[in-house]
Amino acid sequence: MSTLFGIICCSSAQQEGNECIKANALSCGECIQVGAKCGWCTDTEFLKQGEPTSARCDELESLMKRGCDAARIENPHGGQRILKNKAVTNRKKGAEKLRPEDITQIQPQKLSLNLRSGEPQNIKLRFKRAEDYPIDLYYLMDLSYSMKDDLENVKNLGTSLMKEMSKITSDFRIGFGSFVEKTLLNPCTGDQNCTSPFSYKNVLKLTSNGHQFNSLVGKQQISGNLDSPEGGFDAIMQVAVCGEHIGWRNVTRLLVFSTDAGFHFAGDGKLGGIVLPNDGRCHLENNMYTMSHYYDYPSIAHLVQKLSENNIQTIFAVTEEFQPVYKELKNLIPKSAVGTLSANSSNVINLIVDAYNSLSSEVILENSKLPEGVTITYQSHCKNGVVNEGESGRKCSNISIGDEVSFNINITAQGCPKQGKPESIKIKPLGFTEEVEILLNFICECDCHKQGIKNSDMCHNGNGTFECGACRCNKGRVGRQCECRKDEVSTEDLDKNCRKDNGTDICSNNGECVCGTCECKKRDNPEERYSGKFCECDNFNCDRSNNKLCGGHGRCECRVCICDANYTGSACDCSLDTSTCLASNKQICNGRGNCECGTCRCTDPKFQGPTCEICPTCPGVCTEHKSCVQCRAFGTGEKKDTCERDCSYFNLIKVKDRDKLPQPVQAFPLMHCKERDANDCWFYYTYAVNNTEKEVHVVETLECPAAAHDHSRPPRVRQV
């Protein structure tokens, strides 16, 4: 049952495994797009009669076994070139200050890949966190009435934060913006002292002047809102997309979002009659968002997209009450953090520093949208030898300034996307402005395609292009040489050419007659093929041995086994190797037999065994086994102390007397032995080899002279 199961599994694996044959490729280009294992034989004489053009496409090993020279197999491979490879910056603390554009944290920066279908290209990226890297921080604050005391503390934030951040970088800039809500109704009532409501105001673009920050923020007044959730998403969108107004540089970009309330998102604007979805564009005039009454709030997914596109890392500084809400939001926005804001924002500096350290210690790679049919996998090599794969392979954590990590990235194409037009993708670490550009070129045709001859005489009066050893037929033509039109109908005259003899089946019932030529049908198992002028041959109806076609030592051609070297027989099950027949004296079968199919056939009846070296009836046999028979049967003799170790090579059988000993008429050679011990007592036994089993029959009592009986007791017989 297990053998049968093995055969079924093997057959199933073959059918599923040889994708090259199953693809039915009619050209070299089609063949190499099936997978990296597939090759195309360009030898014009390669195909047997009846085999279709698609039989040129097969696995490489199979093509060579079928007789295609390796030099005639088209099997292009992909490759890669590094186009820009600026080394990562190794600036040490205290060294000369560098411009942001002169700092490199990821290497290489640009590559070109040639992709063969199914063959991955591996690239290695290095990332090193630079010393003294510049930081831009934009503080976006909720100025609804409940944040009144918080505003008082933030008014002195500029110089204090500048001082604290100088411990991290010598190049720090800070900006300020505020938001409340869409301006549909006036939220200020009674004697409340508040400014008119607004959606978002860019109060101060990024600057290195901390005193200017304090001065401008000190002039701000709180406003109001009619419901608890605020319009912060409108403000975040404008901060992300209005880069020129905000003053973002290509450095680390931090957005601190400070509030004591929740948020509105896409769909909430409909409550105020706003139905147009947010367009994700900049709409600032005089530093005010002017389209809040026209466009709905952005969705979370839209915000994630714009924050990522503009390399902005977000820090949510929110009160304890709204921690759960913003922690959920953080899980949806990569490279973001949440900190607990005290009731009056007095802890905001520590919150910002802690969040920055957390964000900057983790690098996460993301890639742009992949072309159809292209896949990518990541493997990260992080600190302390930690290796991550799968989604975790995109990131490394706990990276300190000066640490270097690397990423192995596999990019694979399946087929030939978009007819082989070049594509490009980008890979970048989230929250960083640097990126790696990768140009993708697809190998869709073979080199031999370039030497194709259009309207070649090889293709029946020029009805096709002769390329890569075969005809690629013009539209409407079929046949190996494009010799027929598709609309031609089979006739009796043409059918005659497809019969081996009158009265026999067309194409031996194993194919179709196309243009008077047999095209053999395919089997369910793509490894099995019909061939021959009349499809009378196949490669699967040969003799088997050990449930293997041609014994696993040959190939089946037209129902006859063609054996590998050193094998013969109808099923290639007879080995010509004589090494298994060599005796210890280096003679074949000890010179007393013939080696047939790797096994000795002894010609001398006295000799037996795998190499004809065992001779139970030859002189010296009795003496050779005497000591072991003594110790096993009587517990005496030279080997009585080592009996168990040295004498377990035969089966011992005791008999009552000599008449009970086996006789030479047995079917196998047998030797009668009579030996004397140290007490002049005789013991009798026979030695025989029955196939591979050695047997000793021994008379259980000794025959001793009278003196021995008078003066000594015979040894005690030990039953074995």
From TrEMBL:
GO terms for cellular component: cell surface; focal adhesion; integrin complex; lamellipodium; melanosome; ruffle membrane; synapse. It comes from the Eukaryota. Residues 27-446 form the Integrin beta subunit VWA domain. It is a single-pass type I membrane protein. GO terms for molecular function: C-X3-C chemokine binding; collagen binding involved in cell-matrix adhesion; fibronectin binding; integrin binding; laminin binding; metal ion binding; protein kinase binding. InterPro entries: EGF_extracell, EGF_integrin_1, EGF_integrin_2, Integrin_bsu, Integrin_bsu_tail, Integrin_bsu_tail_dom_sf, Integrin_bsu_VWA, Integrin_dom_sf. Residues 19-69 form the PSI domain. This is Integrin beta. It comes from Cyprinus carpio carpio.
